[in-house]
Specification:
By secondary structure, the protein is an alpha+beta fold. It contains 11 helices and 14 strands. Bound molecules: flavin-adenine dinucleotide.
């Protein structure tokens, strides 16, 4: 299939893009095109006007400002995956990108595009969720920031107005020496996760958990933070008992999504198994730090 006819626009600034977005009929933003173009080819989407952000340089880049990492909306997934700053500050992102699609897609695909496409099985909103990231958007009324926990308004729909565009995302890195893991089950390497789990943890010199984040993709429309497990495990020793307690919390999650291929009970089972594995790996990495083997 070929896409339905559309007009193409290539603004060179955010202001110009916003103007086009407000003025044009039935517009759609183009980032890497790796999700939008297939949807247009299948005619799931038939925009009349395409606003291509690829000429807007200010939307790309990774930088540290004060204690915060900022990633521009148009930053290619490959550039994030291979960034030494990201590898140092948030190695969970690099581990997750090992599992995201294929090199050719990551070369074009952007983090911003993934956050707007909001596939429930995507690893990218999930690691931003574990990092408590914030999404920065701009529209006719100026800029505003939206916490990742409020970013999903409904299935594959971000909490952003039609007249707004995503500028980028930012997050505070976890302390040097934290443990991390991103593990997933997918049918083939490079496929979206059926279920994926992101874990970040810090432990003290007594191997007690001092900070923990667990986020799961593939079980609901938005990344699911295991808040009960996170608070229950604080102060516990980073051992098998803590892992078991966290896994038990998955039993109480309601309304796990399902489709023709994967029932909700199967997704729940995968969430439990991969949460256990991811916490175990994150514990090992955090514990190594206290034995002088910092894996950063
Ligand atoms: C074969 C294949 C396998 C894949 N596997 C995975 C995978 O395993 N994991 C995964 O996470 N992803 C996967 N993807 C998707 C990939 O990560 C896409 O790159 C991503 O979902 C969309 O990013 P993009 O830059 O290509 O955005 P586009 O396709 O250009 O846009 C996606 C949507 O976001 C909107 N948009 C984009 N940027 C902005 C902005 N700045 N402001 C407002 N709206 C915006 C667009 O209008 C569109 O609706 C796969 C894709 C393919 C083709």
């Amino acid at each position: 299939m070929k896409p339905a006819p559309f007009k193409y626009h290539a603004p060179s600034s955010v202001e110009e893009a916003l103007h086009l977005l407000a003025e044009l009929e039935n517009p759609k933003i183009l980032a890497g095109g790796q999700s939008l173009m297939p949807m247009m080819n299948f005619r799931f989407m038939m925009p009349s006007n395409i606003i291509d952000l690829n000429q807007i340089e200010e939307l790309s880049g990774i930088e540290q400002r004060d204690q915060t990492i900022h990633i521009g909306a148009m930053t290619r997934q490959h550039d994030i995956h291979t960034s030494s700053l990201v590898k140092y500050a948030a190695p969970i992102i690099c581990d997750a990108y090992d599992l995201v699609s294929h090199r050719q897609i990551r070369n074009r695909g952007t983090l911003g595009g993934s956050l707007c496409h909001l596939d429930p099985s995507s690893e990218q909103p999930c690691f931003i969720s574990a990092l408590d990231g914030t999404i920065d958007v701009i529209g006719p009324n100026g800029r505003r920031s939206i916490g990742i926990e409020d970013w999903t308004s409904m299935y594959m729909t971000p909490a952003m107005l039609d007249t707004e565009l995503l500028l980028g995302t930012h997050f505070k890195p976890w302390p040097v020496g934290h443990g991390w893991a991103f593990l997933e089950y997918s049918r083939r390497h490079g496929d979206y996760a059926i279920v994926g789990v992101a874990v970040l943890v810090t432990v003290n010199e007594n191997q007690e958990i001092t900070k923990l984040a667990i986020s799961i993709c593939g079980i609901s429309f938005a990344p699911c933070r295991l808040k009960v497990a996170e608070s229950t495990l604080i102060g516990m020793r980073a051992d098998q008992h803590a892992i078991d307690v966290a896994a038990q919390c998955i039993d109480s999650i309601e309304d796990i999504m399902e489709d023709a291929h994967n029932s909700s009970e199967y997704r729940r089972h995968l969430a439990k198994v991969y949460t256990q594995r991811a916490i175990e790996l994150a514990f090992q990495r955090a514990n190594n730090t206290h034995h002088g083997q910092n894996t950063h």
